[in-house]
Design a protein that fits this description.
There is one protein chain. By secondary structure, the protein is mostly helical. It has one domain. It is 75% helix and 0% strand. It is built from 3 helices and no strands. Helix 1 packs across helix 2 and helix 2 runs antiparallel to helix 3. The longest helix has 36 residues.
Length: 99
C-alpha cells in the first residue's frame, strides 16, 4: 500500500515538473526567437524537443530525488543521453531552418 501511495505521489510530481518545464522552456524559447526574428515562433517540434530534454533530466536526476524508490531506477547510458540531447537540439532549431 505504501509503495502505491508513493508511486501516485511520484506520478503527480512528474506531471507538475513536466508542466513547469514545458511552460518555462517554451516561454524562454519564444522570447529568444522573438528577439532574434521579431515575431514569436513556436512549433510542435520545440515542444517535442523540450519533452525529450525533460525525459533526460528526469531519468538522470529527478527520479533519484523523488518519493518512489526502486531498484529498477537507473540513469540513461551516456550514449543514449548524448543522442537524445542532440536530437532534442535539432528539434529546437528546426524553426530557424523553416524561417
Amino acid at each position: 500500500m505504501i509503495k502505491l501511495v508513493s508511486f501516485v505521489f511520484e506520478l503527480l510530481r512528474l506531471c507538475i515538473l513536466l508542466i513547469l518545464t514545458l511552460l518555462i522552456l517554451g516561454g524562454l524559447e519564444r522570447e529568444i526567437y522573438r528577439l532574434i526574428f521579431g515575431n514569436p515562433i513556436y512549433l510542435w517540434s520545440m515542444t517535442l524537443g523540450n519533452m525529450i530534454l525533460f525525459l533526460v533530466v528526469y531519468r538522470n536526476y529527478f527520479q533519484f530525488k523523488g518519493w518512489y524508490k526502486s531498484e529498477n531506477n537507473k540513469k540513461l547510458k551516456k550514449s543514449s543521453t548524448i543522442s537524445l540531447i542532440t536530437f532534442s537540439m535539432v528539434l529546437l532549431l528546426i524553426p530557424i531552418w523553416i524561417n
